[in-house]
Structure formats: structure tokens, C-alpha cells
Amino acid sequence: MTTSALPPAVLLMGPTASGKTKLAIELTERGPFDIISVDSGMVYRGMDIGTAKPDAATLARAPHRLIDIRDPAQAYSAAEFRADALREMQAITDAGRIPLLVGGTMLYFRVLLEGLADLPEADAELRIKLEAEAKEKGWPAMHARLAEVDPIAAARLKPNDSQRLQRALEVWELTGKPLSQWHAEQGEPEPLPWVMTQIAVAPPDRSILHERIEQRFDLMLEQGLVAEVEALRARPDLHADLPSMRAVGYAQVWACLDGFHDAAEMRLRGIYATRQLAKRQYTWLRRFPAAEWHDGSRDGLAAQLLRGSLAGMA
């Protein structure tokens, strides 16, 4: 299977709507691959349409691990993903098969490969305090506050990146040490016991991806995305500020249901937010210099990969 003494694993990365799922399923039909989802939205139960979660028939053909493992009221961290993914990878390897990690949450891929600094656990009381302050002053003001105590972290974050700004301020207030210093003091992670083949899929022309994003968002609306969000919004334990409900698509529909804009504006905002997500995913992908790039929509790509970078795995 490989000349290395270590077993193989495959990382299949790419922006949203780039053809990752289709390619992954084709690979599972041609070789001994088991899919592990690398998607921060698909972990949530009841969030199916807006996350483009594979339907029941597709999952029967190609089961995905780490899908539907959390309730939307619960948080799910990158550290939890790493622990879950490593456990599933080991189980797949022990069964004599090959882990195929597929998704667009690039932070999860990065954390899987590089590990995380040993940061303090979240403090619920402090988070409530920071959220209340943000509601009063706005997240740009919180960003300015972070810049005073941790300019390195602030430079990496946008003024409205509420989730990461909150965490950076939380770490500072809990420890008196900037988040950037915690990361700088992190040692080199231990090498993972797999030979990792990294594959990135994306259209050669960004405009093609933009067209696919628009078509897919319209399809989601036809499939009942609004009704899906209505059902979530009806739950008393869910609100718009939860990480799950801030997901692209869900946030725009929720705001529409709250009366902030009409359906036509919601559609435009959803498409724009998805394009912005894809732009960030492209930026993240450039941080994986070992990745081999392909057009995920090209016919015969699975067979080509199995003759090339994945040769010997089928």
C-alpha cells in the first residue's frame, strides 16, 4: 500500500461547492476508504439542508463519521474535533482500511496536523460578561480592546469575528497572558502515525465556484432551508448567537425570520456570505503547501488520483 512503515490517510480539502463529497464517494466505491467528515456544521443534528449534508441514500452508500454528533445547542471545538478524528482514524486503520478526511473546515485540518496550545477551558460566566459588553459597545470596540493587550492576535482577526475575539479576550482575562503568547510557546506537535496525502479540489476559475454557490443556495431554498431554520428557531434553547446558528445560511435566514430583511435580500446575503466563506477557505488552503490541487468537477478524477498520488491504495 505504501513503502513507509506508517499506514496511509488522505486529506481531501476544498472550498464549499467544489465537488469534495462527490469525489470522496467515488473514491470509497473504488478503494478501501472510510470517510470522516471535516465540517463544523455537519456535526449538528437537524442542520441538514443548509450544511449540504449528504442525504440518507448517500450515507448508506458511503457512511460519514463525525456527522450528527452534537445538538445545535451544544458547542463543538476544534480540540474536540481533533480528539474525535484521531480516534476514528485509528479505528479505520485498525480495520485495515484507509481514513479519508473530507471537508471545508480548514481550521480543523490545521489543528489535526499541528495540534493546539494547551489553553485554559472556557469560562461560562466570563463569556456571558463579554457578550453583554459586546452588545453594549459592539464587536469592533472589543477588537480595539484586544488590540491593546494582544496586538498580534487582533491583527489576525476581523473586527466582527465575534467568536474568536471572545475567546482571545477570555484567555487574556483568565490568565493574564495573550493568546498569541500561548500559541508561540506551543512546542512542535508529535508526528501523527500516518502518511498523509493532501488533496485540494477547486475550480480553475473562481467565477465557476461563484455560479455553483448561487445555484446550490437556490437549491437549498427549494429544498426547505427556511422551514429547517424555522424549526430550529422555534426551540426555546436556541438563539441567533450560538455558534451553530451563526453558520453561513442559517444566520441569514434567521435574520430574515426576525424581520431584519425580506426573502429576496436574505437570498442575496446568503449567497454573498457563502462566497466570502469560500474566499476564506481559499486563503486557508494556501497554508497547506503539500496539497496537490485538482478540479473536483472533472470527470475521471477519482481514477486519475488512484493511478497517481493515491496509487496502491485501491
Number of domains: 2
Intertermini distance: 8 Å
Superfamily (CATH H level) name of the largest domain = P-loop containing nucleotide triphosphate hydrolases
Instruction: Assign the CATH architecture of the largest domain.
Output: 3-Layer(aba) Sandwich
Report the average pLDDT across residues: 93
What's the helical proportion of residues? 40-55%
Q: Report low-confidence residues grouped into runs of 5 or more.
A: none
Widest sheet: strand ordering: 3-2-4-1-5-6
Give the quaternary arrangement of the chains.
single chain
Give the ordered list of helices and strands.
EHEHEHEHHHHHHEHHHHEH
Number of strands: 6
The dominant shape is globular
Tally of contiguous helical segments: 14
Q: Decide which structural class fits the backbone.
A: alpha/beta
CATH topology of the largest domain: Rossmann fold
Radius of gyration: 20 Å
Description:
- Helix content is 51%, strand content 9%.
- The chain is an alpha/beta fold.
- It folds into 2 domains: 8-116 and 193-307, Rossmann fold (3-Layer(aba) Sandwich); 124-184, Histone, subunit A (Orthogonal Bundle), CATH 1.10.20.
- Helix 1 packs across helix 14 (301-307).
- It starts with 7 loop residues before the first strand and ends in a 7-residue tail after the last helix.
